[in-house]
Structure formats: structure tokens, C-alpha cells
User: Which sequence fits this backbone?
């Protein structure tokens, strides 16, 4: 970064609960409930939606839901495995 | 019309060249007016060859317009305007001048009717973008910029070699569809793919862009890779290997972004990921797929600008804090920036009502329509994964999650205006895609908003999002880097050079040593015989000389009589 940046504003000290969660526990709970309801609603709605499957399996019940879930899990796992081999410290190239 | 007098890209290049000589309000005026004039010029370029020039034995088609080049020209001019507005407070003029030359030359590429003009603008882009990287003004950006230009010069050499071979083969310099069947066309394809961020040299993107300044990265995100996409659409539609190259880029981007701690590097990995979608579409090569590639490039430039602007705003307001591990909770003090980042993130995930939804789905549908099963399933999987790495990773860990205690305010008005403009465009195109569809190269027969499409997309994204929150402890950013292909030229090359240096050093030493030994023996020999006291250097007595002559005469007599 260039040295002509504005000075870093000092962290707002006592008023800032650093390390705590940004969202209040009640908000988090509300979001979790809303999220769960939306997920269930999407599954329930699935049989009423007529898709245009190209391959057969993509026309099965709630295909996009479980496929999205499985793809995300797979990517998280692969990223973890990659890290086992390729993770280095921040200063690796500075040495 | 402006485009009759001057190529539209050159207009912006001249704007950039003017910047170092103007100050204050005049500088702001040039920054804002030059891209707008360029936009007007691009918009009015008619179909067909508009401007020619002679070069050696060739007639260069300096400006040739069609729907595809206008589409890319328009979005490049928009990106330059947004970047210029965002960078009004960047007082390092060299960066802005270079950025405008860079943007202008990318517009030059998309209006090139022949390969020579294309190559010239292509190389100007490489140089100008390197100056933008260097304008990060740190030791890190200096080194990253040097690596960046080396990779791009290599790409340029491949392109030039291919171009020369192609011209020798065919005698044609037209920038029209090529089949990768000759050496020349393969070399050109390789050179273009270097700029697209394709394997194996893809690491340059994440190596260089995040080292630019808070404003420089916004410019860098827009032009180089998308110009390469344009050239691929123009020259290599339907080249099957591009499907697999694109898919490799998609998953590389996801996996590296998921491991990354630097917020701008997360966004830059997602550039490679999104360009992968476009490259795959070019490989599919149908009209819907090429429309999808072009539309996705348009949408991508806008939402990527929003995302890098929001990251730039964080960097600007915190004085350079860029690591996710040091950020968090900024939504409290930066509500505007947070909102812009969320809109950009939803767009990159192709959430309904955003621009990504109306463009990315064209690509996936094209794969389905061609019954390319592997490509289709992988593209859907990658779309689901997209929400993990930017949608949530960037937004959640920078603006929410654990409170870092930092309380930077929203950035100044000009930066907010740029973010707001780009975010608004993302939403407008998402709700009303027709203006974008009207710009596409082929007639559009595609309806993005059907009930099944929206429900399926929401299922895909929201269940993937659920995985993000369920695996939060696993994916939380950590200190550290993940090795990439650049290891080969940053570490392996160095090690190889050292090792070879030592080995050749030893060989040299021993060669020199044995040479010296031979010389020493020779000198010793000469010294023994001719040195002081040597046999041949002694002074002999007269009697000895007479005796020697006598012996010689005797030998002569003997030989004579025999």
C-alpha cells in the first residue's frame, strides 16, 4: 500500500467489543430460523415445480438442493486436503 | 462521429496521457469525461471496417465494428468510468494515467479488425497494466509487477510467434475465426490463454492484482482477462479443449479462494473462476454459449468492480488492513460499503434478481442443451460453490463474523458514488436483462425468469450456503498462503539456479584447476632447462666447446665414409 493513505483510524476502544460477534445472539437466532424455514420451503415446493431436465437425474426430487449441498461439502473437503500439501507461512517467499 | 477521426480506444489513451499535465478540478474533469466520450464513441461505431492504415505490405483494419466488439467496448468504457470515479481521490497520477492507457488499449483490441493491430494494443495493455501494479508503491508490488510483466511478455512472444507463423501459412492478417490445426494457431491460442489466466500460468492473476493500490486493483480486474475472452470468442469459438481449460480454472479459483486470507486475493481468485465459465462457454461454441460468454463478461466486469471497490474502500478507510483475520464487524460502521459488497456478492453467485443470474445461466443452459453431461454437472457444482468463497467468505469475514474492533467510516462521496453506480447496474440488469440481451452478438431466445429456474437456483445456492455456516470452523480464514504455480518460478527456479550455479561453479573450478596444473608443469619444465642454472642456460668453458665441435666433426667423418 502506498504511504499516502489516510492514517488508520484508531479502534474505538472500550465501546468496541472486539472479538465478539457482530450480530446480536437474537438476530443470529432469527436468521437461523428464517434460513431453515426457507430451506424447508424450497424442498416442499420442489414437486410442484416443473423443470426441464437434460440428463434424467436432474429431474429427480430436490436434485438441486442435495447437489448444491454435496458440491459445497466436496469443495470444502478438497480445499482442506489441498492445504495439507500446499499450505505455507505468510513469509514463505520473503525468506 | 468521433470514431471516424480517432479509434475509440485511442481517445481514452489520450485522456490518460493528458492526466499528468492537469491538476485539481481539471484533472477530475479529464478523469470523468474521457471515459464518457469514449463510451459515446464506442456506442456509435458502425458495423464494418471504419478506419484503415497501411503497414509494410498490409492494410490494417484499425477500427472494425460489430455487435461483439461494441458490447465489450461499452463495458470497458463503463468500467473505466467507474474506476475513474472511484479513483478521484487517488493522488498518485501515474497510476491513473497508466490505467486509462490500459483501458484504452483494451478497447483498441476489441475494435481491431486485423491481428497486427490487435497485437500492438495487446502489448500496450501488458506494459500499462504493469505500471498500474507497480503503482501499489511497495517492495511487494515492485516484485509482483516484475513477475507479472515477465509472464505477459512470454504470452506476447507466444502470440507474436503464432501470428508470424499464421501469416506465413495463410497470408491473411484478418482477425476472424481460426481452427487450432496449425502450429501458428496453437501458439496464438497459448498466448491468448496466458492472458485469460488459464493453466498452467494462472498464478499471475492472484500474484499481481492484490499488490496494486486500493484503486488500481479495480482497473486491473476489468480488462486483461476479459480482453482475452473477447479474442477467444472472436478467433476460437467451439474449440473443445477450452471447455476443459475453463473447468480447470473454475475449480482452481474456488479452491484457492476458499483457502485465502487476503480479502482482495479472494476476489481475484474468483476472477479466474468466473473467466473459467466464459472460457468453457467459448469451448461449447453454440450461439447461446457465445451469447452467454459475452453476457457473463459484461455482468462480471460490473459486479467484480463493485466487489473490488468495496474491498478498496475497506483498505482506504483502514489504512491498508486487508487480511480477513484482522477484519470483521465492519458492517457496523460501513453500512453503505457492506450493502454494495452484498449486491456484488449476490451477483457473482448468480442469485435471482442480479446480473449474474441472467448471464451465467445462459452458459450452463448451453452445456445442457448440447448434452455435455460432465461440463453441465461441474458447472452447476461450481455455481453452488461460488456462494461459499465470495458470497459468504468475503462478505461474512470482512463485514460480519467476529468484531475486530475496527470502526472505519464509509468512504468519501466519490467512492460511494462509484460503488453505488456499479451496484445499481448489477441490480438493473438482473431485473431487466433486455438491454443487455439486445447488445449480444446473436439473437437471444432465452428467458431467465421461469419458476423452475428460480426455485432450482435458490435450492442450489441456499443449500450450499447452509454448508458454509455448518462448516464455519473448518473454513475460517487463517494466516498463511497456499502454494501455486508461481512457486516454480519464485522458488524452484531460484533453487535450480543456485544448484546449477554451484554445480557449474565446481565444474569451472576443476577445469580451471587442471588448466592451471598443465600450465604450471610447462612453466616448471621451461624453468628447469632454461632457468638460471638450467642445463641449456649455463655458460660453458671454451675447452668444452672445442671438444663438442671435435666430437661433431668425428661423427660427420664417420658418416661420410660409411
Assistant:
Amino acid at each position: 500500500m502506498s504511504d499516502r493513505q489516510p492514517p488508520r483510524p484508531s479502534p474505538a476502544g472500550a465501546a468496541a467489543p472486539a472479538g465478539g460477534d457482530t450480530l446480536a445472539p437474537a438476530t443470529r437466532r432469527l436468521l437461523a430460523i428464517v434460513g431453515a424455514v426457507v430451506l424447508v420451503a424450497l424442498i416442499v415446493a420442489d414437486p410442484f415445480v416443473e423443470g426441464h431436465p437434460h440428463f434424467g437425474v436432474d429431474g429427480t426430487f430436490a436434485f438441486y438442493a442435495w447437489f448444491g449441498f454435496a458440491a459445497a461439502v466436496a469443495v470444502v473437503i478438497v480445499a482442506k486436503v489441498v492445504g495439507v500439501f500446499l499450505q505455507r507461512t505468510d513469509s514463505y517467499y520473503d525468506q | 462521429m468521433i470514431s471516424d477521426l480517432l479509434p475509440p480506444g485511442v481517445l481514452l489513451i489520450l485522456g490518460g496521457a493528458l492526466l499528468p499535465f492537469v491538476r485539481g478540478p481539471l484533472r477530475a474533469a479529464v478523469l470523468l469525461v474521457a471515459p464518457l466520450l469514449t463510451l459515446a464513441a464506442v456506442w456509435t461505431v458502425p458495423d464494418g471496417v471504419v478506419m484503415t492504415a497501411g503497414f509494410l505490405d498490409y492494410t490494417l483494419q484499425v477500427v472494425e465494428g460489430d455487435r461483439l466488439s461494441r458490447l465489450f467496448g461499452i463495458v470497458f468504457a463503463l468500467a473505466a468510468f467507474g474506476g475513474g470515479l472511484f479513483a478521484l481521490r487517488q493522488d498518485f497520477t501515474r497510476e491513473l494515467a497508466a490505467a486509462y492507457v490500459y483501458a484504452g488499449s483494451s478497447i483498441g483490441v476489441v475494435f481491431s479488425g486485423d491481428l497486427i493491430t490487435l497485437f500492438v494494443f495487446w502489448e500496450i495493455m501488458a506494459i500499462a497494466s504493469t505500471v498500474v501494479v507497480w503503482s501499489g508503491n511497495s517492495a511487494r508490488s515492485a516484485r509482483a509487477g516484475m513477475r507479472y510483466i515477465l509472464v505477459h511478455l512470454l504470452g506476447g512472444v507466444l502470440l507474436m510467434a503464432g501470428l508470424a507463423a499464421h501469416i506465413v501459412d495463410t497470408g491473411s492478417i484478418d482477425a476472424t475465426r481460426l481452427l487450432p490445426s496449425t502450429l501458428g494457431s496453437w501458439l496464438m491460442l497459448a498466448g491468448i490463454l496466458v492472458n485469460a489466466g488459464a493453466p498452467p500460468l494462472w498464478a499471475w492473476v492472484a500474484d499481481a492484482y492484490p499488490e496494486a493500490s486500493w484503486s488500481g486493483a479495480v482497473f486491473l480486474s476489468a480488462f486483461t482477462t476479459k480482453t482475452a475472452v473477447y479474442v477467444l470468442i472472436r478467433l476460437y469459438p467451439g474449440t473443445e479443449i477450452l471447455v476443459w481449460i475453463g473447468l480447470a480454472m473454475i475449480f482452481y479459483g474456488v479452491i484457492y479462494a476458499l483457502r485465502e486470507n487476503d480479502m482482495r486475493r479472494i476476489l481475484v481468485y474468483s476472477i479466474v473462476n468466473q473467466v473459467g465459465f466464459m472460457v468453457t462457454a467459448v469451448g461449447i461454441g453454440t450461439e447461446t454459449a457465445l451469447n452467454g460468454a459475452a453476457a457473463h463478461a459484461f455482468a462480471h466486469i460490473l459486479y467484480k468492480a463493485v466487489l473490488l471497490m468495496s474491498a478498496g474502500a475497506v483498505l482506504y478507510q483502514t489504512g491498508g488492513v486487508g487480511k480477513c483475520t484482522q477484519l470483521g464487524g465492519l458492517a457496523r460502521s460501513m453500512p453503505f460499503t457492506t450493502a454494495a459488497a452484498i449486491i456484488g456478492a449476490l451477483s457473482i453467485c448468480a442469485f435471482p434478481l442480479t446480473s449474474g443470474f441472467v448471464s451465467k445461466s445462459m452458459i450452463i443452459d448451453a452445456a445442457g442443451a448440447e448434452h455435455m453431461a460432465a461440463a453441465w454437472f461441474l458447472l452447476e457444482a461450481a455455481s453452488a460453490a461460488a456462494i461459499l468463497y465470495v458470497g459468504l467468505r468475503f462478505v461474512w469475514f470482512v463485514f460480519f463474523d467476529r468484531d475486530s474492533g475496527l470502526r472505519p467510516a464509509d468512504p468519501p462521496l466519490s467512492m460511494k458514488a462509484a460503488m453505488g453506480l456499479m451496484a445499481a447496474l448489477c441490480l438493473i440488469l438482473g431485473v431487466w436483462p433486455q438491454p443487455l440481451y439486445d447488445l449480444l452478438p446473436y439473437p437471444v431466445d432465452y428467458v431467465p425468469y421461469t419458476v423452475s429456474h428460480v426455485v432450482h437456483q435458490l435450492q442450489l445456492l441456499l443449500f450450499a450456503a447452509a454448508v458454509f455456516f455448518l462448516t464455519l470452523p473448518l473454513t475460517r480464514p487463517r494466516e498463511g498462503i497456499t502454494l501455486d504455480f508461481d512457486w516454480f518460478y519464485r522458488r524452484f527456479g531460484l533453487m535450480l539456479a543456485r544448484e546449477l550455479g554451484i554445480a557449474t561453479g565446481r565444474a569451472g573450478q576443476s577445469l580451471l584447476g587442471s588448466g592451471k596444473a598443465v600450465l604450471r608443469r610447462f612453466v616448471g619444465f621451461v624453468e628447469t632447462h632454461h632457468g638460471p642454472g638450467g642445463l641449456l642456460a649455463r655458460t660453458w668453458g671454451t675447452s668444452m666447446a672445442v671438444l663438442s665441435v671435435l666430437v661433431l666433426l668425428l661423427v660427420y667423418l664417420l658418416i661420410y665414409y660409411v
About this structure: Chain B has a mean pLDDT of 92.
